[in-house]
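---------- Forwarded message ----------

FYI, see the Exodeoxyribonuclease III record below. Original note from H. follows.
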Amino acid sequence: MKIATYNVNGISARLPVLLRWLDESRPDIVCLQELKAPQENFPVEALQNAGYHAIWHGQKSWNGVAILSRNAQPEEMRRGLPGDPDDTQSRYIEAKVNGLVIGCLYLPNGNPAPGPKFDYKLRWFETLTAHAANLLASGKSVILTGDYNVMPAEQDVYKPERWINDALFRPESRSAFHNLVAQGWTDAIRKLHPNETIYTYWDYFRNAFGRNAGLRIDHFLLSPQLDKRLVNAGVDTNVRGWEKTSDHAPVWIELAGE
């Protein structure tokens, strides 16, 4: 089973790129972030024609997450994290798909830091971590994937010394990510590629993609039930070089059958 995550950076503007990638890659399950579209503007018909069922949590102009499935309609479990009813930003959606619990997330950027946006990022991280603990305790096969807006280690960022004060690389953000993983999650990319330079995001400016001046901020965290089923993982870096593409590239894993 092939599962992917992709921050599309605006699903309306990137729909041709998304459909081309889906046709070429054929993932079974896809998590999308940064839809930047209200609920009614999600391109459900185009995705159905491409062979995918979908659930989505839209928001006008900003944020937005979705889960796609080729084989069955995702069974929605929740939209939004529990414990923060005042949070109106569309950043989390969760579903049962093909025997898995899939949590698709778009964690806040947090810049400028310090400041209110950074405080919101850390609060959101705390809420996610509390929910993640409950998911682990359920004993189910769980994947938490998406754009975490965190580079966990220096190997995950081009020239880390330039990012010391950025919300994506500040010690508080990295600590929050490591605390989450320490609950018992597996960082799928790093399990299979512990020493490689792997990026999932390249800025549009200063020829960042051409220079491979990137960041690894899109992650797959797997519950213990899935750790031994992980057989492959990678990044479709070539997609970042397509015309009118997102500043992220799709990230994917493959799981063996039970």
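H. also flagged this: The CA atoms of residues 206 and 213 lie 9 Å apart.
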